């Protein structure tokens, strides 16, 4: 399933990752304090704290970095509704008799575990020490991936009713899907002033390698910008200069609010109309997401949910 489809899991998880330190001072809450019920099942303050432990596992520095007290109420509310939505999804999945692929759960968990050990903690020893420090068992991590897959299972079940005719009608109503804007494959070197830019341009005109010069002199470490579209939200002066070039050409210094750019493109493709066959998969996915969002909104409206705002915001 397209990653964008996992909105209900990833969106709130990212918010928590970004702001998680805001609740670092809430460690003495009574474990049995219920903050919401969903179809008669309790969500406790402890569930929020347990979720935060997973956040801290993935972002070890988040507690210190995001410790501002003003975020606490907002973050607590976001995590709570993440947990509420998960319970609504779990209830619907069970009601429909759908099942999560436990092999996929294991696969996702092992991949996440490998990334934690390799990319965040650097060794198995450090990883295990962090688990012990936070009081997390690996089953909690696996359970998170299991709950994430509930959304995917429900999405696949619900969106299977979207037909190609639905997608064609959607494309007809949204003709921009059938237009491919012009694009170029671009590189740039950003300098602080025109004089410096002219000096660097001279090096390039004398045969110096663009990437090597860019890596040495550019204020922007991203020398290779890759494919950019004529409709991208970039500085219009930069875009105009880039699209005025032909493959292999290097621009004169181009001034924007960021400084002076020297631009090079290696590929150029003119705008053209697309056939439905070329965009079928993309349009089908968009239509499926739209269909699922409507389905989920109705689920939430009809769900048996009770929250206790006074307790949440205390």
Q: Distance between the terminal alpha carbons, to the nearest Å?
A: 39 Å
Q: Please tell me the overall pLDDT.
A: 85
* CATH topology name of the largest domain: Triger factor/SurA peptide-binding fold
Across the major sheet, the strand order is 5-4-7-6
| Tally of alpha and pi helices | 13
When the domains are counted, the total is 2
Approximately how much helix is present in the residues?
55-70%
Uncertain segments: 1-31
CATH class of the largest domain: Mainly Alpha
Give the H and E element order: HEEHHHHHHHEEHHEHEEEHEH
CATH superfamily of the largest domain: Porin chaperone SurA, peptide-binding domain
Count of extended strands:
9
What Rg do the Cα atoms give? 25 Å
In short:
57% of the residues lie in helices and 14% in strands. By secondary structure, it is α+β, with helices and mostly antiparallel strands. Mean pLDDT is 85; it is low at 1-31.
């Amino acid at each position: 399933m397209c990653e964008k489809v996992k909105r209900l899991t990833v969106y709130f998880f990212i918010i928590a990752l970004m702001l998680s330190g805001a609740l670092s001072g809430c460690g003495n809450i009574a474990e049995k304090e219920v903050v919401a019920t969903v179809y008669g099942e309790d969500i406790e303050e402890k569930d929020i704290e347990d979720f935060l432990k997973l956040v801290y596992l993935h972002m070890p520095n988040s507690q210190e970095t995001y410790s501002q007290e003003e975020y606490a109420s907002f973050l607590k509310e976001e995590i709570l509704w993440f947990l509420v939505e998960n319970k609504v999804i779990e209830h619907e999945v069970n009601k429909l008799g759908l099942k999560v692929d436990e092999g996929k759960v294991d696969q996702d968990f092992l991949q996440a575990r490998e990334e934690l050990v390799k990319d965040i903690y650097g060794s198995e020893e450090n990883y295990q020490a962090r688990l012990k420090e936070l009081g997390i068992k690996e089953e909690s991590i696996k359970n998170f991936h299991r709950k994430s897959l509930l959304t995917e299972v429900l999405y696949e079940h619900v969106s299977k009713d979207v037909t190609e005719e639905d997608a064609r009608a959607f494309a007809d109503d949204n003709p921009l899907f059938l237009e491919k804007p012009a694009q170029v494959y671009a590189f740039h070197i950003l300098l602080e002033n025109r004089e410096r830019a002219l000096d660097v341009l001279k090096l390039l005109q004398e045969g110096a390698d663009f990437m090597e010069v860019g890596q040495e002199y550019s204020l922007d470490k991203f020398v290779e910008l890759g494919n950019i579209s004529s409709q991208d939200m970039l500085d219009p002066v930069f875009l105009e200069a880039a699209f005025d070039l032909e493959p292999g050409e290097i621009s004169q210094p181009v001034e924007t609010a960021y400084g002076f750019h020297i631009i090079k493109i290696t590929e150029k493709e003119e705008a053209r109309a697309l056939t439905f066959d070329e965009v079928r998969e993309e349009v089908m996915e968009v239509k499926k997401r739209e269909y699922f969002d409507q389905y989920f909104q109705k689920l939430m409206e009809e769900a048996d949910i009770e929250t206790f705002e006074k307790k949440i915001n205390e």
